[in-house]
Amino acid sequence: MRVVPSVLESVTVHAEGALCTRAFVLSPENGHLPGQVRVDGLPLALRTGSLRARVVEGPSGLLVRDLKPTFDVRLPPESELPAEQHALEAAEAALSAVHSRLERVRSEIAALRGLTPTWPAQRKGHPPREAPLTAMLSLTGFVDAELAELQAQELDLERQHRDATNELELRRRRVQELSSARSVDRARLFRAALLTLSGPIAAQGDARLVLEYAVAGARWVPTYDLRLPRTLEEGTLRMRAAVIQRTGEDWTGVRLAVSTASLERRAEVPELKSLRIGRSQPPPARSGWREPAPGLEELFAGYDALHVAAPPPVLQKPQAPMAPMYEEPVPETDDDGYAEQESYKEMATFGGAPGGAPSVSRPAPPPPPMAAPKSSGAFLGGSRPSPRRSVTGAVAAAPPSVSAPASARGGGGMDRMRNKKRAVMEESLEDAPMADLLSADEEGGGDELRRAAGLEPADNLFDYDSLTLASAASPAQRGRLRPRPALMSQAMLSFTSVNVQVEVVRLEAQAFVFAESVNSVTPPTWSVPPRDSARHFDARFDAEAVADVPSDGAWHTVPMLTVPLEFKAEYVCVPSVEPRVFRTVRLDNASPHPLLAGPVDVTLGDEFLMTSPLPTLGPGETQRLGLGVEEALQVARNTRFEEATGGMFGNSTVLTHHVSVEVANHLPRPASIAISERIGAVPESQKDLKVEEAEVVPPWQKATPLPGEDAVEGERVWRVSVPAGEKRSMKATWVVKLPASKMLNGGNRRT
């Protein structure tokens, strides 16, 4: 097997997760390509079910026949470890040395402080001894001198200990800030892929293959950069992608693409069933299903003769006074409900053993198991075949008066559990149609009954990657494929390829948890996840140049593409609410790409202006983007209100509103301004109210809201162009007529 190096060429970042593509070249040796190759260095957060491989260039007919995931453990040399790791280890060693010296000095200080003069006990009949003053003074002077020196050393070592602790904390933070691709562990665990090739292995030229796999721990959100001149007449909008990833490998010099599609969503083409008009016909067999070959049990004849047939044990007559204390043990069943014939065989041959075996009568061994059914023996329509006949037959083979010691059965509690399980199994077979079907299946006629009952193989029997061959010790399943238990993961199946004692499952789980931690990182301000702003479509954006995204769990901005837009500058003012003019830009998306919602950094001339949220803008749509207040445009609004009675008998009230607006342009260029006013709107239920527009100079129009903007009832808009350094005046008059017995809610004055 040849280990080939690979290069990460392209990465597509989805809403959650990424799809990576690696390429490698196979060169022939002695005119032949290798039959098996191994690609190492894959990230540990790789999803094993996403591995795909194909031949891009090479001899005609060369195919990838098999692809298996496995693990790769590396022990890197010292030269490959990062410099930060060496600095961390040096800081740890320095701190340990200083701590040892400090503890030694503190122990010596404690020992010196314990040096005090002791007085011997006074003996009876003898006078007290004279105190040795000279010795006491010498001891005190020695202790003071030594303590002074040791305490000076303690102060110096405490300072060194603080410095070493700070240095160690600094080095640890430096290591934590490293990319997750630069592992500092002495033993590194990676994923690997085993490829088996088939076809014309003999070749003269190179073959180029690509390997695709999905990884967890990657996200992206859209951001934009809008550059406008001072005139607001044209501009450039560039789309950027803020990407964060902790996949375990750095993306260096890759072709980056981002997509709004979900990486977990299945995109299989549904299987449409045809409808036939005419004579009824049985449904065709599903593609991929094949009944077991005839004569399958003949392959296991030698196995049954070797493992099932056993010499008859020596039967001993049970003693008359002894009463049976235990029931006959029931064969254990596996997860699929099939009896374990091996354990039952061992219990059946117990008794008559040499070396003083207990004198317990045992029956003859059970007869060899019956021939397994000719059907598949796997799931049928979502249900499992029950081993009713094999279990009941084995129990009936033993006389009820035979007993066995507890050591052969594993305790009475286990027997009770087995008997309870057997009772549950027998109760579940009360359904007559299914019991008849299973009985007929054991006799070899299950295929006809299944076809008559309309049962089809379950969907999991067509997922051949998850099927495994049953053991020969299971007579009802041997020689047939069945689904692998769900608890057996790909990581557990790959234990055999790891020769180093590494906790693979724990490390793999830690890698996935570490990778998924990017989902909790706060995105940039005004950012919207692409799945929330993509509406009902999915889009993919390719970067114009190669990009670098390290695996450090931080946001990195990658330029994607320049979006062709049509810009139209417009100043907006609502003087009745705010007497200030706001700058806006109307964006018409003339590109085939949708613009997702996200923050846009606006640069006006050479000056950064602001960051504003941009709503989702589909192809051909128009949106308005606010750019803040324009101080060079000033607006003044004056109102006048008149109330009078009208009508032939004075039975109505006439409310006249006069509004005048003046705009002054202090910009060095003309400005197009939209000034909004609002007149009264009469609901349909009030037929006796009327609103009439009397005089409007210049004429205004009804407002047409852009997509995403709310319509305001009764809104009118003046659109005027004011030359540089000039003023424009507008005025409007409208009349509201209502019955004299009524009044507007909140007062008649509405200006």
TrEMBL record:
Signal peptide: none
Domain (DUF4139): residue spans on this chain: 211-739
Domain DUF4140, chain residue ranges per copy: 11-112
One Pfam family, short name: DUF4139
Source superkingdom: Bacteria
Compositionally biased spans, kind Low complexity: 394-408
InterPro entries linked to this entry: CHP02231, DUF4139, DUF4140
Ranges where the record places region Disordered: 348-416
Name assigned to this protein: DUF4139 domain-containing protein
Naturally occurring in which organism (per UniProt): Corallococcus caeni
